[in-house]
Amino acid sequence: MRTQCLLISAALASLALGGFSSELPRTSAQDPVSTASQPGQVTATMDDAVAAYRKVIVLMDGAAALDEGNRERVRTAAWILFEGNGDRLANLEEDLRADLGR
After folding, report:
1. How confident is the model at residue 5 (pLDDT cuts 50, 70, 90)?
2. 30 to each of 20, 35, 36, 87, 95, how far by Cα in Å?
3. 21 — phi, psi (to 5°)?
4. Across 2-6, 39-43, 59-63, which has the greatest mean pLDDT?
5. Fewest CB within 10 angstroms: 35, 72, 82, 96, which?
6. Residue spans per domain, the chain
7. Structure pTM?
8. What is the mean pLDDT of residues 58-85?
9. d(CA 30, CA 19)
10. Which residues, 6 or more positions from 75, have their beta carbon under 8 angstroms from its beta carbon?
């Protein structure tokens, strides 16, 4: 359990550090009122991201004790949550960069 938490923490840290890259801001295909212009929406998006990471932790806790079929299902569900979070955070970063540009 502790090893899994450390691995997940390392993955979260690398994602967070990756968000501070020096790439140019991408254009957003969303409406002019971005997520970043609404502080409550930013907070809600961040809360959703944390909740998804917690779900991954809960899913993967004790996965080694499962049979191979269930372990693969748990791993797939955790991966889907993880990838969805990556998309959510990328969109948030895009919105925040666009808001900063204004």
Report:
1. very low
2. 22, 9, 12, 14, 9
3. -70, 165
4. 59-63
5. 72
6. 2-21+36-101
7. 0.57
8. 92
9. 20
10. 60, 63
